[in-house]
Amino acid sequence: MEGITVKWLLCLYLSIYLTLNFVSSTYNPGSKKTYIVHVDVSSIPPAFTHHIDWYSSLLKSVAAVSPQEIDEEEEQSVVMYTYQSSFHGMAVRLTQEEAEKLESQNGVVGVLPEVKYKLHTTRSPLFLGLEPQDTTSVWSEKLADHDVVVGVLDTGIWPESPSFNDTGFTAVPAHWKGACEVGRGFQKHHCNKKIVGARSFYRGYEAAAGRINEEREHKSARDEDGHGTHTAATVAGSPVHGANLLGYAYGTARGMSPGARIAVYKVCWKGGCFSSDILAAVDAAVEDGVNVMSISLGGGVSSYHRDSLSIAAFGAMEKGVFISCSAGNGGPDPVSLTNVSPWITTVGASTMDRDFPGSVKLGSGVTLKGVSLYKGRRNLSPKLMYPLVYTGANSSSPDPGSLCLEGTLDPHTVSGKIVICDRGISPRVQKGEVVKQAGGVGMILSNTAANGEELVADCHLLPAVAVGEKEGKTIKQYAMRGRHPTGNLAFYGTKLGIRPSPVVAAFSSRGPNFISLEIMKPDLVAPGVNILAAWTGDTGPSSLETDQRRVGFNILSGTSMSCPHVSGVAALLKARHPEWSPAAIKSALMTTAYIHDNNHKPLIDSSTGGPSGPYDHGAGHINPVRAVDPGLIYDIGAQNYFDFLCTQGLTQTQLVVFAKFSNRTCRHTLSGPSDLNYPAISVVFPEDKRVSAVKIHRTVTNVGPPSSNYHVVISQFKGVDVKVEPSVLTFSKTYQKLSYEVTLTTKVRQTAPESGALIWKDGVHRVRSPVVITWLSPI
Ligand SMILES: *[C@@H]1O[C@H](CO)[C@@H](O)[C@H](O)[C@H]1NC(C)=O
Ligand SMILES: *[C@@H]1O[C@H](CO)[C@@H](O)[C@H](O)[C@H]1NC(C)=O
Ligand SMILES: *[C@@H]1O[C@H](CO)[C@@H](O)[C@H](O)[C@H]1NC(C)=O
């Protein structure tokens, strides 16, 4: 008796101990965590000949133990990375107390805790869908070989995919200094003239999550997840004829820039992606000589100077690297963006004109439309009707039973039936797995109010059709009221020419930019729903562990998919215009973007069914063919971006974080943040009603014919009068710069932001900047 009690107590003690121990990694001031330390190397004391010596002296000075106790070996285990290409600093393991002490040391400009980033495809909640190609294929063919290298920071690569076939490629560009790191499952021969580099970064991951279990995970650039293979192939996959997912989306798969080279930086692992690893990859990529970086990841951000990725991206931009990042899948909630720094291109997601229709036929005779990517042996007989069951209590609001969560379905109730499951909480493909395991023969996945009518097709393990909220309600009401409700599912393969398209995806994160309203974000939208691209050989298309299927291509959705479209198009622009700065490339993409769908109506927001605005679609949908010849560009140099930061109320120390390679100082050239030469215009009228007029300036560079004549066209606004001076720009040379001034005068203060556009036209080019005007209401 006593023995049992003791055992029980011991057990209780152990579980409490383990729980506390786990939590303590965050809260115990004595435990070490990873910090990213940003330093100002210009304040390196003369006593040190090398900054590494200075770093170790800094660390010794804050160590809780006396300096004598730190031997060489221990020190190495404390410093995980030193950074020098995109910024100066290191990743170190410190206690909170040490971190605080270090922050106050001379020359230390920031000590930021490690941040965990997420891939922007909801991995198991896979948004599934369509593919890239269309518009660019004609002209990308002509640029077959070029020297642009795109760094892809992701889960690695599956090098055997035919998308990375290098047949016909010329030698690796001479400027490339990267490496092909060998590790488990990744050998030297896995790099070729297409995959020119492969590295992996895991010190931050191992410090946070423990040593990598090499049985489960390749400690190399090999991709067991699939996400990195998919994004890399979307950027620069070689053409593959007859690509498809179980017969769906059949056609030629190719990246946006099939001639570009891929450099793989594996920074995401089964346990997540950690900022110290991401920064080490950005640093290495800059050093290796990438021209474009594609980062389909995001983490929480509260300011430009506390966000390590933003700081590293600034350094990369200074070295001429174009960086595109996913905007996030936090939509349709407003202010849900990540990666909002002006020197980053922030990409939202939209649909394409392809769909995978399916339907639900009810015993009542009604047939409702949905989507599906199901293909398999467990087909339902088209001649039969199957019993239908909805285990929820209420057709208009989901409850635990209706969500088909693990362990909620009773085989007695669902066996042999088609089960209706509400979307939400658990991954969509997992609901299918739960239904299948409980003996269900099919699934109808119903949207709820949270998703409305936006449909994403998934590669379910059993016959399944996804339906919108309206259709779902009809089906659920029938299933709850009918005496013996029955139904069947049908699948119709791939359908092209869907109208309207593109449509802004409901999940695509929305503006405004919470750090500065004056920098309009997102910048653009690009295809991010139902994208077909190469996949790993290690994981099935649903990403479920029980999925034994293996496919060469998979269909995914997310801003993770739209970001590499922009990275690939940026690589094409870089190949065509090697002299263009990252800001010039972004300007070309933004000012040529379109805001109308294939019905010639304004782009629709899938979450409302109504027109979308600049906080949803940014400057609009990318238009690669026009971006090659934009006519004019809004260029921005590193010092201009720094001058923008000078308008953001940062302290001298916070500013130094961005000035590490030069002695940048504020030149005070901008009248305010709206004055940055951004290709979009966002003006904010302060609470103070006496400020009724705001002036901003822009400078355009002529990249069209030497002799060009542009005139301005501006939308009408209810709240302001807009005057542009001069209203005609006459260029006589290529690369000539001309400036103009925009004066906005409030007529009637509006409660909601007003949007429109400012367009320069020369009869051939149409250089469009979105305009947003916000009046802050007096508190
Ligand atoms: C690569 O492409 C070439 C030309 O299309 C083809 O002959 C070759 O078999 C491909 N190699 C692989 C490994 O798929
Ligand atoms: C069903 O849910 C809706 C919305 O939450 C609610 O208004 C309604 O009263 C519920 N009906 C029942 C029968 O519970
Ligand atoms: C920074 O300033 C110092 C002294 O003014 C000068 O010697 C150095 O060359 C400058 N560095 C850069 C990168 O401009």
From TrEMBL:
<feature type="domain" description="Inhibitor I9">
    <location>
        <begin position="34"/>
        <end position="120"/>
    </location>
</feature>
<dbReference type="InterPro" id="IPR036852">
    <property type="entry name" value="Peptidase_S8/S53_dom_sf"/>
</dbReference>
<dbReference type="InterPro" id="IPR003137">
    <property type="entry name" value="PA_domain"/>
</dbReference>
<dbReference type="GO" id="GO:0048731">
    <property type="term" value="P:system development"/>
</dbReference>
<keyword id="KW-0720">Serine protease</keyword>
<feature type="compositionally biased region" description="Basic and acidic residues">
    <location>
        <begin position="215"/>
        <end position="228"/>
    </location>
</feature>
<dbReference type="Pfam" id="PF17766">
    <property type="entry name" value="fn3_6"/>
</dbReference>
<dbReference type="InterPro" id="IPR000209">
    <property type="entry name" value="Peptidase_S8/S53_dom"/>
</dbReference>
<dbReference type="Pfam" id="PF02225">
    <property type="entry name" value="PA"/>
</dbReference>
<feature type="signal peptide">
    <location>
        <begin position="1"/>
        <end position="25"/>
    </location>
</feature>
<dbReference type="GO" id="GO:0005576">
    <property type="term" value="C:extracellular region"/>
</dbReference>
<feature type="region of interest" description="Disordered">
    <location>
        <begin position="215"/>
        <end position="234"/>
    </location>
</feature>
<keyword id="KW-0645">Protease</keyword>
<feature type="domain" description="Subtilisin-like protease fibronectin type-III">
    <location>
        <begin position="675"/>
        <end position="773"/>
    </location>
</feature>
<comment type="similarity">
    <text>Belongs to the peptidase S8 family.</text>
</comment>
<dbReference type="InterPro" id="IPR010259">
    <property type="entry name" value="S8pro/Inhibitor_I9"/>
</dbReference>
<dbReference type="InterPro" id="IPR023828">
    <property type="entry name" value="Peptidase_S8_Ser-AS"/>
</dbReference>
<dbReference type="GO" id="GO:0004252">
    <property type="term" value="F:serine-type endopeptidase activity"/>
</dbReference>
<dbReference type="InterPro" id="IPR034197">
    <property type="entry name" value="Peptidases_S8_3"/>
</dbReference>
<feature type="domain" description="Peptidase S8/S53">
    <location>
        <begin position="146"/>
        <end position="600"/>
    </location>
</feature>
<protein>
    <recommendedName>
        <fullName>Subtilisin-like protease</fullName>
    </recommendedName>
</protein>
<feature type="active site" description="Charge relay system">
    <location>
        <position position="227"/>
    </location>
</feature>
<feature type="domain" description="PA">
    <location>
        <begin position="386"/>
        <end position="475"/>
    </location>
</feature>
<keyword id="KW-0325">Glycoprotein</keyword>
<dbReference type="Pfam" id="PF05922">
    <property type="entry name" value="Inhibitor_I9"/>
</dbReference>
<dbReference type="InterPro" id="IPR045051">
    <property type="entry name" value="SBT"/>
</dbReference>
<dbReference type="InterPro" id="IPR015500">
    <property type="entry name" value="Peptidase_S8_subtilisin-rel"/>
</dbReference>
<keyword id="KW-0964">Secreted</keyword>
<keyword id="KW-0732">Signal</keyword>
<dbReference type="Pfam" id="PF00082">
    <property type="entry name" value="Peptidase_S8"/>
</dbReference>
<keyword id="KW-0378">Hydrolase</keyword>
<dbReference type="InterPro" id="IPR037045">
    <property type="entry name" value="S8pro/Inhibitor_I9_sf"/>
</dbReference>
<feature type="active site" description="Charge relay system">
    <location>
        <position position="560"/>
    </location>
</feature>
<feature type="active site" description="Charge relay system">
    <location>
        <position position="154"/>
    </location>
</feature>
<dbReference type="InterPro" id="IPR041469">
    <property type="entry name" value="Subtilisin-like_FN3"/>
</dbReference>
<dbReference type="GO" id="GO:0006508">
    <property type="term" value="P:proteolysis"/>
</dbReference>
